[in-house]
Every structure is written in C-alpha cells, then in structure tokens.
Amino acid sequence: MISTPATLSQYTLTIAFLILLFGLIALFETVALQALRWGNFRRALQGAFWMNLASALPVLLAFSQVPRLGFFGLLIGWAVSVAIEYAVLNHMQPGAKRYTLALAASANIVSFLLLILPAYLSSVP
After folding, report:
1. Helix crossing, 8-35 with 97-111: angle to 10°?
2. What is the pTM of this model?
3. Scanning 6, 37, 49, 93, which has its CA 20 to 30 A from the CA of 12?
C-alpha cells in the first residue's frame, strides 16, 4: 500500500494537540506544586512551565519507544521527566534537594496518572 504524505492540516492538528497537552500537563503540575507549597500560583506556574519546556523533547523521544518497550517505555519517560524537572526546580529554588525531588516526582505522578497513563491504556489492544 502506498502511503500519502501528511498534509499541512495534519501537522497543524498534531502541533495543536501537543500544545494543548503541554498546557494541560503544566496546569496539573502547577496545581500539584502549589498543593505541596512550592510558592504561590504564579511561581508554581512558572516552575511548571519551565520544567515541562525543558523535559518535553527528551520525554517525547522516550515515549517514541513505547510501541517497542510497552509500559516500560512509559516508566523510562517518567524517570527522564522527573530527573530533568528536578534539575529545573532545583535551579529555580536551590535548597532542600530531597523536597525538590519529591516535588518533581509528585508533579509527574499527577500528570502521568491523569493524562499519559489513560492515553496509553486506551491505545493498548
């Protein structure tokens, strides 16, 4: 079967979806950071924005391995995300390293449980 090249509208839709997903993840992680008392809403939103911007490409690359690795690929993506986001949060607010690691892990648990895992489970045959 001959595959046709993707049209501009398909690329536009994909980019719009990724921007929406980025926004939802940043919003969920903002709420998690604020609930864990990492500053006010504005500070938590800044932290969530920068940490997700820094981790977006490496996590997408890790998720590209999900068809080959299955659920383990999701765990790799989660671990990569936690490591990068920990580094960003630690840079923004140096200090308690264990607390910052717990923040990054907790924020990622929220976004993975609410967005990534359901998407994965709905795509598994």
Report:
1. 130
2. 0.78
3. 49
